[in-house]
Write a structure and sequence with these properties.
Elements lengths: L11 E9 L5 E10 L4 E5 L6 H8 L7 E6 L2 E2 L5 H7 E4 L12 H11 L4 H14 L15 H13 L5 E5 L7 H13 L3 E5 L3 H7 L2 E6 L2 E7 H5 L2 H6 L18
Parallel strand pairs: 3-8, 3-9, 6-7, 7-8
Antiparallel strand pairs: 1-2, 1-4, 4-5, 9-10
Protein name: ABC transporter ATP-binding protein
Function: Part of an ABC transporter complex. Responsible for energy coupling to the transport system.
InterPro entries: AAA+_ATPase, ABC_transporter-like_ATP-bd, ABC_transporter-like_CS, ABC_transpr_CbiO/EcfA_su, Co_trans_ATP-bd, ECF_ABC_transporter_ATP-bd, P-loop_NTPase
Length: 256
């Protein structure tokens, strides 16, 4: 037996990905990125760097002009879109873009029910997802009666209910008060899924993601330990990444 045949593929493999919008704007220039199973990786970069364009390729919303994307070894292609969109769960910056049902329970059940889950199995999936984000006791509440931080946790649960391979988070800490920010960080650390976190919140990236990549001008310009990248003053200055005033990433004790 070929020993490579038993190798578990990475959660995400992007190879030579290039994309130009219909107006001719070239957003990505040959991006290569591999994210292993269970990794938590921050995707950093200035506005207009191509971060959103890259994310929209992960579940087939945009189709590559050149190169390829695979999720857990499965090519992101039309014939696989249903499965790819189950495997890649995107949590939007505004939870109200994701929550539209009368109750929290119905919101979390929507994805699995659409995929054919019914009865006790569906109920168990919903309870499991809400428990993982600490929101099980709010299952019968209308989402619009919850705080912003609670709605964001429910939005995460709607994705977890699909048991994704990759959880993609768009600016997860935005508009959260300090307590909600900490609670979400604790939840994200506890999850046994691969996480790709798109963020301008560099301290949050340092807290949650041992590894970061920097996308700038449609090109991946850096890939390494988050703390080391944030300490690289030339890299930060060149690519318009700024730490909060007085924040020193060298002073933070981060896990290996």
């Amino acid at each position: 037996m070929d020993p490579l045949s038993t190798t578990t593929p990475p959660s995400l493999a992007v190879s030579g990905l290039a994309y130009a919008y219909p107006d001719g704007h070239q957003a990505l220039f040959g991006v290569d990125l591999t994210v292993g199973r269970g990794e938590r990786v921050a995707l950093l970069g200035p506005n207009g760097a191509g971060k959103t364009t890259l994310v929209l390729h992960l579940n087939g919303i945009l189709e590559a002009g050149a190169g390829s994307v695979t999720v857990a070894g499965l090519p992101v292609a039309r014939e696989h879109f249903a499965e790819i969109r189950r495997r890649v769960g995107i949590v939007f910056q505004d939870p109200d873009d994701q929550l539209f049902m009368p109750t929290v329970r119905e919101d979390v059940a929507f994805g699995p029910a659409s995929a054919g889950l019914r009865g006790a199995e569906l109920d168990a999936r919903v309870t499991e997802a809400l428990t993982r984000v600490g929101m099980a006791e709010f299952a019968d509440r209308p989402p619009h009666h919850l705080s912003f931080g609670q709605r964001r946790r429910v939005a995460v649960a709607t994705v977890l209910a699909m048991r994704p391979e990759i959880l993609v988070l768009d600016e997860p800490s935005s508009n959260l008060d300090p307590a909600s920010r900490r609670e979400l960080a604790d939840i994200l650390r506890s999850l046994d899924v691969t996480v790709l976190m798109v963020t301008h919140d560099l301290p949050y990236a340092l807290e949650l993601c041992p590894r970061s990549v920097v996308l700038s001008g449609g090109v991946l310009v850096a890939d390494g330990r988050t703390q080391e990248l944030l300490c690289d003053e030339e890299l930060m200055r060149t690519h318009r990444l700024e730490l909060p005033f007085g924040f020193d990433p060298r002073s933070v004790d981060v896990p290996l």
